[in-house]
Amino acid sequence: MQITFLCNGKTEDTYLKEGIAVFEQRIRRYIPYQNETIPALKGTKNLPVAQQKQKEFDAMRKWFEKSDCVILLDEHGKEFSSMEFASFLQGKMNAGVRHLMFVTGGPYGFAPEAYASASHKISLSKMTFSHQMIRLLFTEQLYRAFSILNHEPYHNE
Question: 135: helix, coil or strand?
Fold first, then answer.
């Protein structure tokens, strides 16, 4: 299985970039992993929110293959404990899923088409975090899940 993390707009803060890089390197010990960035849309501030979300989705969908298991990171998604998230990933591997595509949306969430095309929605918390912070939190949780699956001491429970 391969995992891609598709983000909207680049990470700007150095401390976040460094933290993300640490966890991405660790993840790659377990599985092929890539982080891809869709450039932030320009000239859309005056567009209605629905149009902004649609333009973001149009840029995203170019990355999707029919066989991908697309998972939206969305505040209204299913919440997992770290152990449950590890089990979720193990289930996808056991099912023979070849490519998991985790996706963050723009500041207003996703277009209706994104929800319709996604296999799952996952929420990292009931709290709201910046999109840049979510990148660090997600990569840490992905690493944690693989350390759990490999019975390594990173996660204490």
Answer: helix
